[in-house]
C-alpha cells in the first residue's frame, strides 16, 4: 500500500477528530447519568468531571479553602482580594441582608403565617454563627454588597449574580459549589484565573 495522498491524510484526521468528539460526548452523557443515578463514588467522579469542564471553559482553576463550615465565606474573602477574613465576610454579609431585608426575603423559606421580621432575624442570627453553611443567598448578597458579579459554578450550571446580564466568562468573582465530592457534605471553593496561579514561596 502506497503513501497516503494529501486528501486521504485530511480525511483520516477528520475521522479521528470525529471519533474523539463522539467519545467525549459519550463520556459526558455517562457522567451526567452517574451524577443523577450513580453510586456515591460515581457521583463524586461525575461531579469532578463536569466541574473541571466548566472551569476549563472559563479559564479558571480551583483554589482550595478550609472545609470548616465557613467555606463560602473563605471563598468570597479570597475573591475580594484577601484583605478580609471569613469571619469579617460573614459578619458583613449578614448585616447587609439584615439591613436590606426587602431584597432577600423572597429567597428565604418562611412558614406560612409566620411574621417575616421574626423569620428574618432567626435566619440572620443563625447565619452569623461560625460553622453555619452559607448558601446562594449569601452569594447574591455579596454581589450586591460589593457591587460586583459573581459566577457560582456547579456540575450542571454556571449562575451569575449581580451586574445585570454579565456573562460567566466576564464575572469578576467566581466560586465553585460541590454537592458530592467532599465526604463531609456540600462545599464551596474559590477560583483563580489559570495564568494568575502563583506557587507558594515555601514550595
Instruction: Please work out how many helical segments DSSP would assign.
Output: 6
Top CATH class of one domain:
Alpha Beta
Q: How would you sum up the global shape?
A: elongated
Indicate the radius of gyration in whole angstroms: 22 Å
Outline the structure in words.
With 203 residues, this protein is an alpha+beta fold. It has a domain at 60-196: Cathepsin B, Chain A (Alpha-Beta Complex), CATH 3.90.70.80. Helix content is 47%, strand content 12%. It has helices at 6-37, 40-57, 71-80, 86-99, 116-127, 136-145, and strands spanning 60-63, 150-153, 158-161, 173-178, 187-193. A 5-stranded mixed sheet has the order 1-5-4-2-3. Strand 4 and strand 5 form a beta hairpin. Helix 1 (6-37) crosses helix 2, helix 3 (71-80) crosses helix 4 and helix 4 packs across helix 6. The longest helix is centred in the N-terminal third of the chain and has 32 residues, at 6-37. The protein starts with 5 loop residues before the first helix and ends in a 10-residue tail after the last strand. The model is unreliable at 197-203 (pLDDT under 50).
Amino acid at each position: 500500500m502506497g503513501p497516503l495522498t494529501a486528501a486521504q491524510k485530511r480525511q483520516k484526521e477528520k475521522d479521528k477528530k470525529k471519533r474523539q468528539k463522539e467519545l467525549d460526548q459519550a463520556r459526558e452523557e455517562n457522567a451526567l447519568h452517574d451524577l443523577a443515578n450513580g453510586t456515591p463514588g460515581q457521583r463524586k467522579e461525575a461531579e469532578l468531571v463536569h466541574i473541571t469542564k466548566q472551569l476549563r471553559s472559563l479559564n479558571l482553576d480551583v483554589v482550595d479553602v478550609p472545609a470548616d463550615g465557613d467555606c463560602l465565606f473563605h471563598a468570597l474573602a479570597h475573591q475580594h482580594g484577601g484583605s478580609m477574613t471569613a469571619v469579617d465576610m460573614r459578619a458583613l454579609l449578614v448585616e447587609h441582608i439584615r439591613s436590606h431585608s426587602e431584597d432577600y426575603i423572597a429567597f428565604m423559606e418562611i412558614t406560612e403565617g409566620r411574621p417575616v421580621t421574626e423569620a428574618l432575624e432567626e435566619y440572620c442570627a443563625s447565619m452569623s454563627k461560625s460553622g453555619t453553611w452559607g448558601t446562594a443567598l449569601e452569594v447574591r448578597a455579596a454581589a450586591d454588597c460589593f457591587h460586583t458579579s459573581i459566577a457560582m459554578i456547579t456540575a450542571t450550571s454556571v449562575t451569575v449574580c449581580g451586574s445585570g446580564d454579565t456573562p460567566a466568562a466576564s464575572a469578576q468573582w467566581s466560586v465553585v459549589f460541590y454537592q458530592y465530592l467532599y465526604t463531609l457534605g456540600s462545599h464551596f471553593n474559590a477560583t483563580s484565573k489559570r495564568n494568575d496561579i502563583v506557587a507558594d514561596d515555601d514550595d
